[in-house]
Amino acid sequence: MKTLQVDLKKQYPSVLLNIIYAHKSKKDLHLHIIIPALKKEQQLFPLIMWVQGSAFHKQNLSLYLPQMIKVAQQGYVVTMATMVLNSEILKTRKSYLLTQSRSYTMPELGKIMTKVTGHEIGYHPVTVEEFGEIHASEGDGHELASGGAKGYLHGLSDDFAHITGHEPETIEHFLMRKYQK
Prior knowledge:
The protein is α+β, with helices and mostly antiparallel strands and 181 residues long. It folds into 2 domains: 14-87, no CATH class; 106-179, no CATH class. Helix content is 32%, strand content 18%. Strands 1-2-4-3 form a 4-stranded mixed beta sheet, covered by helices on one side. Strand 1 and strand 2 form a beta hairpin. Helix 3 (106-117) packs parallel to helix 7. The radius of gyration is 20 Å and the shape is globular. InterPro entries: AB_hydrolase_fold (IPR029058).
């Protein structure tokens, strides 16, 4: 028999499974909530909402649970929810673009990052192909580059504030809070 050694002193995210958050179209809608390990009482975390669609097939809400636990280990609360589509939703054709109400140029981001870090951060423009190569090791460079080239990253909206009832945290505030930890 093999004995496994597990470090029980290490802090792991908490996982709350199969919480019913709504009842639509005669179905209970469920969500999972993954909360980072708390280091102190009342700690605030940014929230990522993973709303899973399934093209009308039965959904497996736990399919990406291991990956989302990894995200929570980086300091995010992750909510994984199912979505039910019915003919009424399809008729409305309402969709949400979860961007902020403004975009930043790379030089603007450089200035913000310079302010946050106290070190000069510059920007050297690259082609779409170069961007893809730079980020290829992360597995998403070409996808991001092609999405940007097709205009998928150009939209702005206030949908986040509409859905949550408050404005999203500014990038400068987020970076100041995370960098100064």
